[in-house]
Design goal:
single chain; 728 residues; Rossmann fold; Arc Repressor Mutant, subunit A; 7-stranded parallel sheet; 34 helices; 48% helix; globular
Length: 728
């Protein structure tokens, strides 16, 4: 490969406007220009792309850049064209081009104008493209996102596995492989697969010292995300979700809560994806809600937060996605919501795949679980995972565990017991089996290997399995145990462990976080743990009674108790805010709300109350499609049994849905159905009871009143009619 006479420092200034290289950039570029195969492991934001862009500019021929995503290629090409006076300096060659466009790309390469050609691996396999590339001068091959080659990587793509053969068939040229995340196993896999075992390796520190890492239990996650974003107004951020459906739902929820957010996932058409990506880059939108399809190579330096609605499939994914925050060295807050139930869902996704693939996925998930549940410094844990030693005292409370540390206790004896157990079982088990031996749990594997005969069997039964898993994690990060690379997860004693067994020393341990009973308890209604204003609640009940009397209606028809409790928590002072209160729809708010919001506004002013506006969360009703279907179907006078059957509901559940609709202030006309099951005088009798005699809307009290003359279903349906006609 021929370099030019221009100095790298001059080229850096001429092409990119920078005066100095970052980190290893200069030595990496020098290695490539000298014709050496070069392997670069550099964290997101470290300046990987410059390591191949600058040598491409100053070398003879065209550099082939293999990239996994069309969106990523587009973003990179746009950026490179911005550095040059000619658009033909960089091109993409992929399936999105017309024949005429593809021909123009080839003409520009032949004429020597194009210095960088971005291709997807699939495009490289096409015979026409291979023959064309054989006929032109190539400077080098750059394999971006090289972790895609490895089955142990977080974003494995089978088409990447064939790159070596394709490159060899095109012709000899140096290779530079680049990735932001590579464990020792992935690194080895990449080099072996590309035939570059002798490549010069440049590995930068994985520490992003400006990022704050936090894991929160997944309770009322939508509400918590909205609160978090509103605490960081007008800042750019990304919210990652695992499914396209969840992306759409969260994006809409953010939008109705006044947050400038857009959705991004592979299911959107390419024009919409490009439009949303550009809106984010151009700051026309603050927040992108996305699947992992978004972000690879998105060079936006001022992303201030990355939120994971769902825990990622691997620690590599987590590291790369959080790495999109604070790339300019400024603030970068990374919050992940975690529930073990999410891990169980992810495990189900791998069912039906080859056993080896399932095993790899399972091991990667276990590492994610360990990170989420650990109570040690999260930065130390991540860096250890990538083979880097870190002293947690340098974290400066930039993770939740260092900011709010759990108590330590002496664990020397427990550490010795774990190491003894691994030694006695001949270092052939993973953490799970070691914990089963310690706690005396009989499993098929323990039975097969006669582990119940070991001296250590059951010696740790006074503590549960979560406790022993926590100790093992801390021993690993503490440098006493190694995990076998080839048989991922097998625990091996290292020299430190052997010395410890001879002469045990102090080892302070913490118990890990327990998320075992956490699940996403998102509700549209009041969060019961929140404490409402009891004084205001009492006053609102008095007001309800007074207003109801003037309207000759039972008080419960206006607003139910849970609605008043929520008002005493949220302090709504506008009709729009009232609509977001539990059980209050637009109809009810407009009909009965004026006196209530005026009363609350006066109360807030008189008592100098700071209203918790971040608690006022508007929800998009997930069942809105069902709600519309029910209203439309009752308007068409369809039998309720048919409506229920069409939506896979039984009658009690359909009645539940109808009750939710009328309690929030929308009418449902079921007179046609009631006329089939009740005589008109029976209907009048029940209607008059709810209007004149009932103190509450309790069905139990109604059944007592009528001495079970009517069944529960009939009374509930009549209550729906009553509320539709008088309350809505």
């Amino acid at each position: 490969m021929n370099g030019t006479n221009i100095s790298l420092q001059t080229a850096l200034k001429n092409y990119f406007g920078f005066s100095n290289f970052k980190g290893n950039q200069k030595v990496i570029i020098e290695s490539l220009i000298k014709g050496h195969d070069t392997f670069v492991i550099m964290p997101t934001g470290g300046g990987k792309s410059l390591c191949y862009q600058l040598p491409a500019f100053i070398s003879e021929g065209t550099a082939i850049i293999v990239s996994p995503l069309i969106a990523l290629m587009k973003n990179q090409v746009d950026a490179i064209r911005g550095l040059s006076s000619n658009d033909n300096v960089a091109h993409v060659l992929n399936s999105s081009l017309t024949k005429k466009e593809a021909q123009q790309v080839k003409d520009d390469i032949r004429s020597g104008h194009t210095k960088l050609l971005y291709v997807a691996p699939e495009s490289l396999t096409k015979k026409d493209n291979i023959n064309f590339l054989k006929s032109v001068k190539l400077s080098f091959f750059a394999i971006d996102e090289a972790h895609c080659i490895s089955e142990w990587g977080h974003d494995f793509r089978p088409e990447y596995r064939n790159l070596r053969n394709i490159i060899q068939s095109i012709g000899k040229a140096p290779i530079i492989a680049l990735t932001a995340t590579a464990t020792e196993k992935v690194q080895e896999d990449i080099q072996k697969n590309l035939g570059m075992e002798n490549a010069k390796l440049f590995k930068s520190s994985f520490n992003r010292e400006n990022l704050f890492y936090e894991v929160r239990p997944k309770i009322n996650v939508n509400k918590e995300i909205i609160k978090f974003i509103k605490q960081h107004p007008d800042k750019s951020g990304i919210v990652y979700c695992l499914s396209r459906k969840k992306v759409e739902e969260i994006a809409k929820t953010l939008q109705v809560n006044g947050i400038n957010a857009l959705a991004y996932h592979a299911g959107l058409d390419s024009n919409t994806r490009a439009k949303h990506q550009d809106a984010f880059l151009m700051e026309d939108c603050n927040v992108i809600v996305a699947t992992i399809a978004f972000g690879m190579g998105i060079d936006k330096p001022d992303v201030r937060f990355v939120v994971h609605h769902d825990i990622p499939k691997s620690l590599e994914s987590y590291y790369q996605e959080t790495g999109r925050a604070g790339r300019d060295g400024g603030e970068g807050i990374c919050v992940a919501f975690y529930s073990y139930k999410d891990i169980e869902k992810l495990e189900k996704f791998t069912q039906g795949k080859p056993v080896a693939e399932q095993e790899i996925s399972k091991q990667l998930l276990l590492e994610t679980v360990s990170f989420a549940e650990t109570s040690m410094c999260r930065r130390k844990y991540i860096l250890h995972y990538f083979g880097e030693h870190y002293n947690e005292t340098n974290c400066n409370a930039l993770c939740d565990n260092c900011k709010n540390p759990k108590k330590h206790h002496e664990g020397k004896d427990q550490v010795k017991l774990v190491l003894d157990t691994i030694k006695e079982s001949k270092e052939k088990f993973k953490a799970k089996e070691i914990v089963n031996i310690l706690t005396g749990k009989m499993t098929a594997m323990i039975n097969d290997y006669n582990c119940n005969q070991l001296n250590s069997f059951g010696k740790g039964e006074n503590n549960d399995s979560a406790y022993w898993h926590a100790i093992i994690r801390q021993i690993i990060v503490g440098g006493f145990l190694d995990k076998e690379i080839e048989s991922y997860g097998i625990l091996k004693l290292n020299n430190n462990a052997k010395e410890f067994l001879i002469k045990p020393t102090s080892f302070m341990i913490r118990e890990d976080h327990d998320y075992s009973n956490i699940e996403d308890q998102e509700t549209e209604l009041n969060i019961k743990s929140d404490v409402y204003d009891t004084k205001l609640l009492s006053m609102l009940k008095s007001l309800r009674k007074k207003v109801a009397k003037t309207k000759n209606l039972p008080p419960f028809v206006l607003f139910q108790d849970p609605s008043l409790e929520d008002m005493a928590l949220q302090y709504p002072i506008t009709i729009d805010e009232l609509v977001n209160i539990n059980g209050v729809g637009a109809g009810k708010a407009n009909r009965f709300g004026k006196e209530f919001i005026e009363f609350i506004a006066s109360y807030v002013e008189e008592n100098n109350i700071d209203r918790p506006q971040d608690m006022v969360i508007k929800s998009i009703v997930n069942k809105s499609g069902l709600k519309v279907y029910i209203i439309q179907s009752t308007d068409r006078k369809l039998p309720l049994e048919d409506i229920a059957s069409a939506k896979g509901l039984d009658m009690p559940k359909l009645i539940n849905e109808m009750e939710n609709i009328v309690y929030s202030g929308t009418k449902v006309d079921i007179n046609y159905y009631l006329d089939e099951i009740l005589e008109s005088d029976q209907q009048d009798e029940i209607f008059d009871y709810f209007k004149d005699d009932a103190e509450t809307d309790s069905i139990e009290e109604a059944m007592e009143e009528f001495e079970e003359e009517y069944d529960e279903e009939e009374l509930r349906l009549m209550r729906i009619k009553f509320l539709s006609e008088l309350a809505n």
